[in-house]
User: What shape does this take?
Amino acid sequence: MGNAVFAKDILAGKVAFVTGGGTGITGGIARAFAEHGAKVAITSRKMENLVAMKEQIESKGGECFAVSSDVRDYAAVEAAIAATVEHFGKIDIVVNGAAGNFLCRAEELSANGFGVVVDIDTKGTFNVCRAAFEELRKNQGQILNISATLHYLATPMQIHVSAAKAGVDAITRNLSVEWGRYGIRVNGIAPGPIEDTEGMKRLVPEEVKEKLLSRIPIQRFGRISDIENAALFLCSDAASYINGVTLVVDGGHWLTGTSLF
Assistant: This one.
């Protein structure tokens, strides 16, 4: 990170398990956590997607463990959790960032296409939370779920992701109530348009970007570092009384309407 908003040891002694941690927003979160004292386990379906991030974290003195798993497969998630505990001794923080997305009109979307995204985002989020529960209860840990703002109003060509992320928000709220008694905090982040991501390149056509920018009240696109800062805050002791919240980090964009197509 290019700034010094937080103390470098704000997550010292913590172990974070980050899904989708090889690239994009959750890759940035994994890197930021390591830079602020946490030991980080990153997981993705393909090990090759994790190698570069692991090397980047370790080149800066951080500790990173890479383990492949498909969040749709509960047994694979259990195995990844167990491997992380064996490697680092515990898990304090879970970040659910594994996700799937593509543009498709509802009338052209297959049942399989809809189901794949729900399986990765919603079912995958539950799978990881459930598999990590015993460790999180033992350590009075916390969960951070990466959501979106797509479902707050309506976003054409994104019905599958909107449904999936609405489910993620429901998981955040429900678990915050059910698991708060164990000292587990459960929160989320709903990023807006983040310019330095592969999703922005793939999902927002160039001809749409100017219109999109005009609907962001603070007149700039977000950056991965904006989400890193929000994640560091929510997963630090500074947020110890925040539970069940999905923090919108979008410059006020969703309040202006989301339809661009």
